[in-house]
Amino acid sequence: MVMASDETTRLLPRPEDGISPGREDNETTGSISRGTGLAIFIAYLGAFLASTDESLVIATYDIIASEFHELSKASWLVTGYNLGYCIALPVYGTLADTLGRQRSMLLGYLVFALGCLISSLSNSMNQLIAGRIISGVGSSGMVVMISIIITDLAAPSEVALLRSYTNVVNMLGRGVGAPLGRVIVNSLGWRWAFTGRLPLIVLCLFLSRVQFPTKPRASTPAAETSKMEKLRSLDYFGIFSFAAAVFTLLLALTTAGTLDGKLSTVYALLGVCALATVAFVCHECLWATKPLVPLRLVTKGVGQYWLVQVVLFSGRCGVTTTITQYLTQVRQM
Question: What are the start and end residues of every segment in region (Disordered) (predicted)?
Answer without folding.
Answer: 1-31
